[in-house]
Amino acid sequence: MPANTLDLVTELTLRRAAPADLQGVLTLLARTAGWLNGLGVRQWPAGGFPAGRIEPLIGEGVMYVLDAGEDADADADAGVRVPAATIAVDGHADPEFWTPGDRPGDALYVHKLAVSRAYSGQGLGEALLDWAALRAAVHGRPYLRLDCAKDNAGLQSYYRRAGFRHVRTVDLPHRASGALFERDAPGALPAGSSRRRTPAVPVVPAPRSGHATQARRVLDITAHNELIEC
Predict the structure, then answer these.
(1) How far apart are CA 64 and CA 115, in angstroms?
(2) Is the per-residue pLDDT at 199 higher than 50?
(3) pLDDT band at 191 (very low <50, low <70, confident <90, very high)
(4) CA 20 to 30 Å from 155, out of 8, 35, 112, 115?
(5) What are phi and psi of 199, to 5 degrees?
(6) What residues are paired with 67 via a beta bridge?
(7) Burial 119-142 (b: 16+ CB within 10 A, else e)
(8) Among candidate residues 2, 8, 76, 17, the one with its CA nearest the CA of residue 51
(9) Is 196 part of a structural domain of the chain?
(10) Number of domains in the chain
(11) Which of residues 6 and 216 earns the better pLDDT score?
(12) What's the pLDDT at 227?
């Protein structure tokens, strides 16, 4: 199923994270880190990230959240609204991984991609990666890149299925990450778009087995809040 036509029970909105989202983002990243570490995957610190690692991303405007609105997960004890997913997209190429020969300025880079377990299996991660690749194209970057755990074959396969190719693995003893991946940004923007705006994705009717035809809810990854701009 294309990543922009998803069967979603809840309508999700992609927007830039605001300072008020900090605790929700930290909670989701900590939950995801705990889940990964429970599987034996050392992608992120088991307790998640300190606020000092995430606040700059929010302040720079490069951290995004998928907001479930009234249906957002809420931590009853702390009163924290937890987003359905997070992603950071910026021009920062980790110098321990990407060399001058990689032409770091040719890409945008994905960081802190996480999907709440309540929304797993619905294609949200793939949709966000598609959006990030489109963002790279709009900003004149031919590639979208990321690094992930060098010993996580399952995650690496996930990125391959999402259109990424393995560039190389950098094995540094002090880094759990180091498997480098990139995918091409779209070579041509959708018809009628410009380098500053892209059109919304229409709702696609989808028949359901044993049920009357109904509209499939679409996660619009290209038009929310003018996020392609900036």
Answers:
(1) 12
(2) no
(3) very low
(4) 8
(5) -80, 160
(6) 13
(7) beebbbbbbbbbbbbbbbbbbebe
(8) 17
(9) no
(10) 1
(11) 6
(12) 45
Task: Compare 141 and 213 and report the one with higher pLDDT.
Answer: 141
> Which stretches within the chain are classed as H helix?
22-38, 51-59, 124-138, 153-161
Whether residue 124 lies inside any domain: the answer is yes
From 92, 94, 127, select the one nearest 108 (Cα to Cα). Answer: 92
Count of beta carbons in the 10 Å neighbourhood of residue 196: 11
Query: What is the number of residues in the chain?
Result: 230
CA atoms of 157 and 171, how far apart (whole Å) = 18
What percentage of residues in the chain have a pLDDT greater than 90? 53
- Up-side HSE of residue 35: CA atoms within 13 Å toward CB? 12
User: In this predicted model, which residue has the larger pLDDT, 175 or 166?
Assistant: 166
Residue 5 pLDDT grade (very low, low, confident, very high; cuts 50, 70, 90): very low
Residue written as token pair 């990030």: 132
Q: Say how far apart CA 112 and CA 1 lie, in whole Å.
A: 24
The CA angle 37-30-60, to the nearest 5 degrees, is 125
CATH of the domain at 169: 3.40.630.30
Distance of CA 4 to the CA centre of its chain: 14
Strand, helix or coil for residue 159: helix
Q: What's the pTM?
A: 0.78
Instruction: Report d(CA 182, CA 145) in Å as an integer.
Output: 4
> CA gyration radius for the chain?
18
Domain range for 25: 13-190+218-226
pLDDT band at 34 (very low <50, low <70, confident <90, very high): confident
Lowest pLDDT segment from 15-29, 52-66, 160-174, 195-209? 195-209
Residue with tokens 């290209």: 222
Say if 52 falls within a structural domain: yes
